[in-house]
Every structure is written in C-alpha cells, then in structure tokens.
Amino acid sequence: MDAILLQILNGLDKGSAYALIALGLTLIFGTLGVVNFAHGALFMIGAFCAVTLQRIFTISRTTVDESRTDFLGNPMEVDTPYLEIWFGPEFGAALIDWSVPLAILFAIPVMLLIGWIMERGLIKHFYKRPHADQILVTFGLAIVLQEIIKYFYGANPIPTPAPSAFAGSFDFGAALGFDPMTIIYPYWRLIYFAFAGLMIAGVFCFLQFTTFGMVVRAGMADRETVGLLGINIDKRFTIMFGIAAAVAGLAGVMYTPINSPNYHMGMDFLVLSFVVVVVGGMGSLPGAVLAGFLLGILESFASMNEIKSIIPGIDQIIIYLIAIVILLTRPRGLMGRKGVMED
Fold this sequence. Notes:
It is found in: Cell membrane. Its main location: membrane. The chain has one domain (about 1-60, about 105-330): ABC transporter involved in vitamin B12 uptake, BtuC (Orthogonal Bundle), CATH 1.10.3470. The strands form 2 sheets. It has a two-stranded antiparallel ribbon. The protein has a two-stranded antiparallel ribbon with strand order 3-4. About 70% of the residues lie in helices and about 5% in strands. It has helices at about 1-30, 40-55, 80-85, 90-95, 100-120, 130-155, 170-175, 185-210, 210-220, 225-230, 235-255, 265-280, 285-300, 305-310, 315-330; strands at about 60-70, 75-80, 170, 185. It is built from 15 helices and 4 strands.
C-alpha cells in the first residue's frame, strides 16, 4: 500500500506539469485554432525566468573582510550580494532564498509580453493555414528559442533550489497511520501540486465566471456570430494567447527546483503534453487536465521496478501505448468535440 501511495503522489507530480502545459496548448487551439508546437519552449522560458532572477539577486560586490584570513594570514576577499548590502544580511539572504517563488512576479509580465509578440508577430499569419503549416512554423520557432537559451545560459542544467523552508520531506506514513518514514515525499513537490491545482482552478473560474471568459467561450464555439455582435474577438483571443503563455511560464518557474532548467526541457515536455492534449480531446480543457493527471499516474506506476522487470522499458512507452488504445476506442479522445480537426 505504501508503494502504491508513493506512486500516486509521483503521478500527481508529473501529471501537474503535463496538465498545466496541456491546458495552455488547449487554450490556444480552442481559441485560435492553432497547433502551437512552441508551447514547450514557453515552459522552458518560464524556468529560465527563475534562473535569471536568481542570478540578478546574487550579483555581488567583492570586499575585503579583515576579520577573516587565508592560510597565509592575508585578509580574505568575500563576495557580498548587493541585496544583503542594501537590505541587510537577513532580509537580503531571505530574498535570495525565496527567488523561485518571487520569480512568479517577474515571469508574469515577461511571459505575457512574449505571448503577445509571438501571436502578433508570427502566429496571426497562420490562422487560416493548414495545421501542418502551423506545426512546422511553431516547431521551428521552438528550436530557435531553444538555441537562444543555449547560447546565453549554456548547455548544462542550472540548479535552482527551492526555499530552505521547503527543502525537507513530509512523512506521509506517519500522517496516514503507517510506520514512520515509509512514505516520504518532498515538500516542494507537494507545493507544486497545490500550485497546479490553483492555476487550473483559476483558469476555469476565469473562463466560467467572468464576462471576458464567457465571451471567449462563446468565440470558441462560434467565432463569426460573436464578431457580428460587434465584439473584437480577435483582441480577446490575443489576450488568451498571452494568458496561455503565462500559464506555461509559471508552470516552468515552479518546476525549476524539481528539474534543474536546461535548454531542451521544453522539447522534453512538449511531445508528452501534445499526446496529453490528443488523449484528452483536441479543444477540451477538462479533457486536457484529466488526461494529464491520468497519464502522469500511469507513467509513475510503469516506472516501478516490479513492472519494469516484467516488461523492460515500459516506462518509456506507456503514455504512447495508452494513447493508441484510447484513440482506437475513442477517436476524438476522452472528452473531444465533434468536428475538431476532422476536416
């Protein structure tokens, strides 16, 4: 039972990332009808927003500390971050320690701007083009963004730790009545799952209960009719593209302590997230979220040694096998709508 609970937790962790990226993909496809293969790159850029803020926070000034000496007896040179000089050692160190959560505030305007530039500068020219053209141009854009990140940040992963307050692990075993230390799970992974839940709930509430969201949903169902009512639906869809970019970026920001950012992490998540979208049903927001968590849990169970000893390598292909089975039995996905990508 403890092994099953641990794999469910691991699955929810993976599923949170899949669901957030797939949610943004589906928002873009549902509003603009564009298959955006650059969406994984937005996840990567969000992660590097956290890296960038951490580097800004740790810009230091070299000073001589007379109270400390090297082995030759000379005063030592020490690097003191400017934040500690300006705000004091304690508060400055706290800002550096909490750089990942604070990067959310930094990433939101950055991702909204990048989303607006992408949509206005490139994507809008492919609204009425075949989906194959959209895939090719956005995939090319993803490669360009990936190489830009590689040029400025290098090819190696960059460790970006979580705040020290969440550096430990939670003892689920003791909390659930099992033997202590049988189910240990890192605090930050639990934080990420809670963050993903809030993000998903926020997007659904925004679309469901705000006037802006209601107009967007109406535009997703019948764009021409909404336009005839005198509503600039294109402008609202552009805003939704920016929101989708922000969702992907914030997912990347909070994922940095779990997986050290690297230039190819966007591609690693993109293919899996696109499979999640197809399994959930193209254009279906609830389907994308459901499929994200479902496939995350199944992938987690497939990674168990007991399973891999029976079917070696099953953890690498389980998502694709499940996708094949679901699409053979339900060609539109779990919650797909009739007529979406069926022309």
